[in-house]
Predict the 3D structure of the following.
Amino acid sequence: MNDEENRIEDARALTAAGLRVHSMSPRAVAGVGAAMRELCTELGVDVPPPFDGEAWDRWLDEQRARAPRDRLTAAILVWRRPWMTLNADTYGSSVLELLGVDNVFAGGDDRYPEVTLDELAGKGPELVLLPDEPYAFRDTHADEVARAVAGAQVERLDGQDLFWWGIRTPGACERLGRVIRPR
């Protein structure tokens, strides 16, 4: 179970029905390796590469070393009506940080703060990311954001790469890196 995706009532109902419930909610890429190892232990299966302890630490070090020194600033919109973004205490923000991108809303008190396009423009991000989930942003939304945030690169991307942690994390970081910093 995951505290952002599943309701506590459902976890309690499963437990009351005699099922064992395992909860995982990493807020940072660094925690994915441990979460995967715990899940594999619970399931009684081998830990897939690169999630064993030493390999995961090496992978993280390699990603940090590959991150460009010229960091970008970005905003990640996750919802519309109202517009919402995310702060640093989220997996998505952590992925970007690992890739050399600083979230302009990282310091917010709310994990998913509501913002206006004027507030977004005021932060002056170089990049605005519009994932296709949890809200399915379309080209019309990208155009609206581009008009509001002059000079920012606006990119639509696969929300699974930004928010679905676990076995897909290494590949997602590669794909996101190509979207964020095309060569």
Summary: The chain has a mean pLDDT of 94. Helices lie at 8-16, 32-43, 53-66, 91-98, 117-123, 139-148, 159-163, 169-180. DSSP finds eight helices and four strands in the chain. Residues 71-180 form a domain with the Rossmann fold fold (CATH 3.40.50.1980).
